[in-house]
Structure formats: structure tokens, C-alpha cells
Design goal:
The complex is a heterodimer of chains A (236) and B (290).
Chain A lengths: L1 E7 L19 H13 L4 E7 L11 H11 L6 E7 L5 H15 L24 E6 L17 H14 L14 H6 L5 H14 L5 E9 L6 E8 L2
Parallel strand pairs in A: 1-4, 2-3, 2-4
Antiparallel strand pairs in A: 1-6, 5-6
Chain B lengths: L4 E4 L2 E4 L4 E7 L14 H13 L4 E5 L11 H18 L4 E5 L3 H9 L4 E4 L8 H7 L3 E5 L18 H18 L7 E4 L8 H9 L1 H5 L6 E3 L4 H7 L7 H14 L3 E4 L2 H14 L14
Parallel strand pairs in B: 3-4, 3-10, 4-5, 5-6, 6-7, 7-8, 9-10
Antiparallel strand pairs in B: 1-2
Helix pairs in contact in B: 2-3, 3-4, 6-8, 9-10
């Protein structure tokens, strides 16, 4: 069962291979690590939800997956991990279907960590164990004239929807993420639209009993890109 | 990367080191600053400034290199010894070098707290390295072509200037070790302009990798010198850009210590070369990574 959700940016500047002598965004990595550490503290299983790269030019794994793996490695906690990649431009329906699948599998995670019926853990009666969703998702990269995609004034309204949805998670706010328009988000370089819609569908599929409350939520845009670092936890 | 390591004071460095040695003149007549730090207060201000600017070493000198009024050992000591002690008291961790060829001055400044003897006149006083050995200090061996201290080169020719530099520096370095200076505290310096015309200094710069390959830490003293001025036909005061170009080339060849007047600009050039060489990460990277 999904007990925790942690949302982090997918910025490559969080990766060790891109670190300069001083941090480009001071404190960002530390906040991400702290949020992830809190969110996985009791997890038996972690599902990383990330988008494919929009402009892949290498054979390396997607940036989102690498950022997630780096943050998880910093926690030094034992749990199993699976990666769910969603196409950066996946239609909303595809995100919803993927989210429901994630929720269903989370409800069947055994004490061994992997979902029942998967090749990792075929069958068994084990009780479902706590699962954390680690969602790698950014808002618009067009929030200022110096932003990677230059300024698009529409970015702030769309980012506002994302932030309010996350902050309103306790009042079923995440469902509003499903209203994000894929084409508009593509224009605004919202790299996290598809993973956020997978998240919304996964949490929604779990029903009211699995409602999540906001434990922490920090928002910043040091480079004209919206970064959200948030930890949502199931109410006990 | 070679396996070179060397020690200055209590610090240990490897082949990737690119250290800034800031010149602090206790002279009324040096060619570049023309006595700007002759007064003790001004000299202290200069030390504080270069430390703030990121200098790794200060090189304190009491006699200008060019010909001029003779300065005896006692007067040289008066200019530098108490000053070294005061700098040591105010900056306990700063590496202090003293530019002198005299063993008696060397002994006095090492007793006052200096770490390095910069023998800018190529072993003119053979006892200097023995003093360095006695104090476990570092020593800089320089190539001057055997000229008398404080003389200008006049119609000097070499069959192969780099070969002469190599032969002289290896001989001096080996002798320093033989009298007890730690192998990892011996620095070599081809001494641009000293015993050299501009053609010589330019060739030494172009072939600096041959000196790096000798396996000793390499110091270069390029700052605002005549070989820069003659290369660009510019007077003292307008040679910074040329100095920095020579600095970049020397850094790319692998020199380790840079004796300079301008610390900020040199530090930037050296850091840039270190980044380009892959020896230092960029300071801060966000372009394309946000």
C-alpha cells in the first residue's frame, strides 16, 4: 500500500557528476535528501516514477531515474526499488492507466518487497507492506527571461495549479493534477506533467482510506524552473 | 597525472597544484611597484590583501634584482627579518618565502618563521642550501647562467638554453638533496629574464614541459618581465595580459608555482586552466542542468 509520496525535481545539477566546487542551488540537494529519507524511513518498497528524457542524446538512463537513484542511495535504507518510466508526452489516459497499475501493485507488495504475481515474487499470501512513491517531477522551465525556455507568462498559472494540488493533497487536491493539459505543459517545458498525473491516478485509485497529508512542501525556482520538494504521508 | 608530491611548510601538494606566490617587496626601488610596499605598514597591507585574494605563498624580498645601490647582508636583514616574524605572527598558516641569495639572511629569516628560501641567483652562495637543510625548509633553485647577482644579461648565448637550464637546475637540486634538503622540498625555477634574453625566455616557456618532466616542482616567475614587454612592445605597467598568456601556457605545461604581482587575475587564469585540464571542477555549474 502507498503510505508515502515524495516529490523531487529532476534537475541534472543534483547529480554528483555535474557538481561544481560549490552547489549551483545551495540547499536543494540537502532538502531533497531529507525529504526522501523521511519518506522511505518505513518503506519496504519504493516505486520511482519518472519521465523519459524529452531530448535524449545519449544511451544513459533517463535523468529522472538517475536523480532518484542518487537520492535513494543517500538514504542508506534497505528496501526494494522498481522504476516506472512514463513517456514525457504520454497522453493523460496512459498516465491514469499507469497510475492505477502502480496502485494495484503497491497493494500487493509483500514483505519481500516485490509485488505478488511479478517475476520477482510469484504468488504468496504475505501482507502488503508500506510502499513509497518517489515522483521525479518539475514544473515549468519558462518562468523567467533567464529560464532555459525563456519567459512564458502562462507558466506561473500552470505551476500554480501544480503547487496548489500538492499542497491540497489532504483534500483530494492531487486529482487536480489530472486537469493539466499535456500540450500546454509541453509548450511550457513542464517536465513533470506525466509523472504527476501517474501520481494522481495512483493515489486516487487507492481511495479515500489512503488519503495523504502534506508533511512538508518547499517550492523554489532559482533558475526559472519550478522545483517542488514535498513529502506526503498517509494519515494514521 | 604523475606521482609528484612536494611539501612547503606543513602542506603537501601533488602534480595538479597551481599555487600563487605573491611578491611583497621590502625595497624602495623594485622595477614594477617602485617602492609601493617599502614602508612596513604598506607591506603589511599588501600581505593582508594578497592573502585575502587567495595567494598561497608570499615571497618577501629585500633587494631588487636589477643593478643598483649595494645592499649589504645587515641591511637586507633589517628589511626582511622582523617583517617575516611579524607576518608569521599575524598569519600562522601562510607559507612565507624569502627572496635572498645570502645564507646569513636565509638563516635569520628561517629563525623568524619563513618556510621557503627563494634563491633567485642560482646558488651564488653555496651555503644557502645547507641552511635550508638545517631548518628542513624548502629551497628554490634557479637558472641564471652563472651570472653575478644583480647583473643584467649581456650578449649571453647558449647552444640550447633549455639544455643549460636542465643541467644547471638538476645539478643544484641534486646538491641541495646531497646536503640534506628533503627531496620533496626542492623546487626548480628556470628564472625567466635572468641570464637570458627574450628569445631564451620565450623558448624556455615554449619547452617548459621538458622541465616539468624532470620530476621536481616547477616555479615560474613571469610577472611583467621584460620578455613579456619585448614580445608585445609594451612598457612596465602594460604587461598584465601578456603575463597572463604566458601564465596560461606555463600552467598547461604543468608548472606548479607562479610568482606574481597580480594575484586575482593569476588565480583566475590558473583556476581556469585547472578546470580545462580536468584537475579542478568548475566553480558552479547550472547551464543546461537546471
Amino acid at each position: 500500500m502507498i503510505t508515502d509520496v515524495v516529490i523531487v525535481p529532476g534537475a541534472p545539477l543534483l547529480l554528483p557528476e555535474y557538481q561544481g566546487r560549490t552547489a549551483a542551488a545551495p540547499g536543494l540537494l540537502e532538502r531533497c535528501v531529507e525529504a526522501v529519507r523521511d519518506a522511505v524511513a518505513k518503506a519496504a518498497h519504493v516505486v520511482v516514477v519518472h519521465a523519459t528524457d524529452r531530448e535524449p542524446r545519449s544511451t544513459r538512463p533517463a535523468l529522472g531515474a538517475r536523480v532518484a537513484d542518487h537520492l535513494l542511495a543517500e538514504t542508506h535504507v534497505g528496501f526494494s526499488v522498481e522504476h516506472v518510466a512514463v513517456a514525457w508526452d504520454a497522453p493523460r489516459e496512459e498516465c491514469v492507466a499507469l497510475g492505477r497499475e502502480v496502485a494495484e501493485r503497491a497493494d500487493h507488495v509483500t514483505s519481500g518487497g516485490a509485488a505478488q504475481g511479478s517475476v520477482l515474487a510469484p504468488g504468496g499470501d504475505a501482507k502488503a507492506r508500506p510502499t513509497t512513491l518517489l515522483v521525479v517531477a518539475d514544473g515549468s522551465a519558462r518562468r523567467s527571461e533567464k529560464a532555459p525556455g525563456h519567459l512564458d507568462p502562462r507558466s506561473h498559472e500552470v505551476d500554480g495549479v501544480i503547487v496548489e494540488a500538492i499542497r491540497g493533497a489532504g483534500e483530494d487536491g492531487l486529482a487536480r493534477l489530472l486537469d493539466l493539459d499535456p500540450d500546454l505543459c509541453a509548450d511550457l517545458l513542464v517536465a513533470g506533467r506525466a509523472p504527476l498525473q501517474v501520481l494522481a491516478a495512483a493515489v486516487g485509485a487507492a481511495g479515500p482510506a489512503a488519503a495523504l497529508g502534506v508533511t512538508s512542501c518547499e517550492v523554489s525556482d532559482p533558475f526559472g524552473v519550478l522545483y517542488v520538494v514535498a513529502h506526503l504521508a498517509r494519515a494514521h | 597525472m604523475s606521482d609528484l608530491t612536494f611539501r612547503l611548510g606543513s602542506r603537501e601538494y601533488d602534480s595538479r597544484a597551481r599555487l600563487v606566490m605573491a611578491i611583497v617587496n621590502r625595497t624602495p626601488d623594485s622595477f614594477y611597484d617602485k617602492g609601493a610596499t617599502w614602508r612596513e605598514g604598506a607591506a603589511f597591507d599588501r600581505v593582508r590583501q594578497v592573502v585575502e585574494q587567495g595567494a598561497d605563498i608570499v615571497d618577501i624580498g629585500g633587494i631588487k634584482a636589477a643593478p643598483g645601490v649595494e645592499i649589504g647582508a645587515d641591511e637586507e636583514k633589517e628589511r626582511v627579518v622582523d617583517f617575516v616574524a611579524a607576518v608569521r605572527a599575524e598569519h600562522p598558516d601562510l607559507l612565507i618565502s624569502v627572496d635572498t641569495w645570502r645564507a646569513s639572511v636565509g638563516r635569520a629569516v628561517l629563525e623568524a618563521g619563513a618556510d621557503i628560501l627563494n634563491d633567485a641567483w642560482g646558488g651564488a652562495d653555496p651555503e644557502l642550501v645547507e641552511v635550508a637543510a638545517e631548518f628542513d625548509a624548502a629551497v628554490v633553485c634557479t637558472h641564471t647562467g652563472g651570472v653575478t647577482p644583480r647583473t643584467r644579461p649581456h650578449r649571453i648565448e647558449y647552444d640550447d638554453v633549455v639544455a643549460d637550464v636542465v643541467q644547471s637546475l638538476v645539478r643544484q637540486a641534486d646538491r641541495a638533496v646531497s646536503v640534506g634538503v628533503s627531496r620533496d622540498r626542492v623546487v626548480i625555477d628556470p628564472a625567466h629574464d635572468f641570464g637570458k634574453n627574450t628569445w631564451h625566455s620565450v623558448e624556455v616557456t615554449r619547452r617548459l614541459d621538458e622541465l616539468v618532466a624532470l620530476g621536481w616542482p616547477l616555479l615560474v616567475s613571469l610577472s611583467n618581465k621584460d620578455f613579456v614587454g619585448e614580445s608585445l612592445d609594451l612598457p612596465v605597467g602594460e604587461r598584465l595580459t601578456g603575463t597572463l598568456a604566458a601564465t596560461a601556457i606555463s600552467a598547461w605545461h604543468g608548472a606548479h608555482i607562479y610568482r606574481v604581482h597580480e594575484v586575482v587575475e593569476t588565480r583566475q587564469v590558473l583556476d581556469m586552466v585547472s578546470v580545462l585540464a580536468g584537475d579542478l571542477p568548475p566553480a558552479r555549474t547550472a547551464r543546461g542542468l537546471a
